[in-house]
# Entry
Amino acid sequence: MPRSKDDKPIAKLPDAGSGSVSLKALAAHLGLSSATVSLVINRSPAAKSIPPKTQERIREAAQELNYRPNLMARSLRQKRSFTVGVMVPEISEGYAAMVMSGVEDFLLQEGYFYFVVSHRHRRDLIEEYPLLLQQRAVEGLIAVDTACSEQSTLPTVAISGHKEVRGVTNIVLDHNRAARVALEHLKKLGHSRIALVKGQDFSSDTEPRWQALLSVAADLGIGVKDELTIQLESDSSSPEVGYQMSKNLLARKVPFTAMFAFNDISAIGAIRALRENGKRVPEDVSVIGFDDILSAAYQNPGLTTVRQPLRQMGLIAAETLLQRINGSGKGKYRKEIVVQPELIIRQTTAPPASQK
Amino acid sequence: MPRSKDDKPIAKLPDAGSGSVSLKALAAHLGLSSATVSLVINRSPAAKSIPPKTQERIREAAQELNYRPNLMARSLRQKRSFTVGVMVPEISEGYAAMVMSGVEDFLLQEGYFYFVVSHRHRRDLIEEYPLLLQQRAVEGLIAVDTACSEQSTLPTVAISGHKEVRGVTNIVLDHNRAARVALEHLKKLGHSRIALVKGQDFSSDTEPRWQALLSVAADLGIGVKDELTIQLESDSSSPEVGYQMSKNLLARKVPFTAMFAFNDISAIGAIRALRENGKRVPEDVSVIGFDDILSAAYQNPGLTTVRQPLRQMGLIAAETLLQRINGSGKGKYRKEIVVQPELIIRQTTAPPASQK
DNA sequence: AGCGAGCAGTAAATCGATTTACTAAAAAAT
DNA sequence: ATTTTTTAGTAAATCGATTTACTGCTCGCT
# Structure
């Protein structure tokens, strides 16, 4: 087959072909050993004996050939993956999504990626996922509203985990303050017969929040009557849960002028039940939610609620975790970080109708 | 130092110590080569010459020592990571969260994990993330409501991507059908002066949905007047966007009895604006949203809306992607998969007040 | 007795980067 | 002129699994 005489190997375009350039290929291209190239590219202190000109040459070639180190190989060698795992009950819930938004912000900024798994409150998954994640070489775990057991040897940060578990940093809301701002707000408006909603048993927030509520109510001289108390039960993240329970409550015919819900979702369900029962919100009954998920503000009328700084909690969780991973802390870690709630007054609270 | 005579090596507890057992350690424990152990554990056909008794022995030991292969090492060798990347505009938005819920369901079932990144519509991130993900050895990409450019050599599935890009399977809603069910519903109720809301320019759904709307409106004999049309602008995922635009619309003083919003979020904002303007929903103005995000059902009154099967779209995306990754399809792939919308009639639509 | 077939496994290369210990040559110091 | 130091790098081990190409060995068959 005739070909021109000075047949050169066809010049590969810098970015040509399919596979990416390996360190070895780059080194060969430069006529250097891969060791040298690696040292320079990683700006290792051991590269101090390589003259600046060569370093420059290496970096330029890396750029040109679009060299990108294979992170699998690097991770294998260094035993670092720059990856963490995030466990949530359910990704599509406003609560978890909001927290993750904060988590992501911080992690990506620091060059970390994360795996998300949602366990939907299934015990077996809550046990298994940390192991799977560990196998995936994550360097740490963030558990959102998940009571994880002790097994994991990984640095772990829990958001609203509550149970004190060895090796786990808990990020928790100041529930006392939360109960106080909400109840004081209602009291100041003139409410005294207040219905209270307790969370589902599986939520880690349920108990501490309830205890705080009782203690603050006592402190403010607000009576807590069993007849005005309901507890959520179904494992669903729809307002349906709050709706049903509120119907039960209304069926008891015990009068009340305000309601403090366990979360925004149940508050929304409760409002529907109240309306169907002929009660106007806030004229006849004031309602306070909890969390301030996105759709709280979207309600018509806007839902008055106790805001948890969810994004910020995610951010703090990520920051704390990376500190624990990279820090020289030698197994020392903070057991608890408390964040503050904020009362967001919208349109579902008002003074009680003077008399009915 | 006196010790009992038949001093045995202190038996290590099965799960003792810190580090996990490596294949080599397991092989040593068994007195076999790591090759053999690997073949048996992976049920490789090449293990057929290993007698069942030995196989049994190996598997038992693996169980006992709690052997878990290092996925980094395996990935490096096999060039498979069992990981995909998911790009969304913003994780905390109901739309993306819902899709991801479906994606996750399928992926985890199949033994895949996924990285999430949210680009917040920033061009540079939209360009960069695919590369970062590729570097993280993901085997494929799912892009949600993101107009990704062509560069990626990875198998990609886009949800509401729309632009036809080489190598990308698009999962799209049947916008014509969506427009039809919504407008027919309004027409049947007796509405003819209908305000229409066009989406932000950055959303990939904006154009196709608008075109469908125009074509269906023409078909149904519904006039589309510029004075009754608004377009969303701000890059925010709050109802504020729809609220402002609706105020503008109302300021024009052009009467209308119904509104078809671009999405649920903007519908919610619009409802607020309508109410402040003294209009009742649905008595004076009917409103239809789009998407059926979780909080659509939570509205009081419940928002009538065109549901996109978001979870299912996520599921299909994941399934299609894995097929493309694992399939023998040789670069063949479906260009488009169309899913059907569903009209969810709640309480924000009703016949127009007979006369005003 | 000799041959091939089957059995039970193993040695060693490989994936791609990192990292320690080392070398050869040149420059500086004595 | 020799020794020491510095310069400019390199060879080779390593991370932990996978996988291909072998190696002895035993058994049956002619």
Remarks:
- Residues 22-24, 34-35, 38-39, 42, 44, 46, 69-78 of chain A lie near DNA strand C (CB under 10 Å from a C1').
- The longest strand of chain A covers residues 83-88.
- Chain A touches chain B through 49 residues (CB under 8 Å).
- DSSP finds twelve helices and twelve strands in chain A.
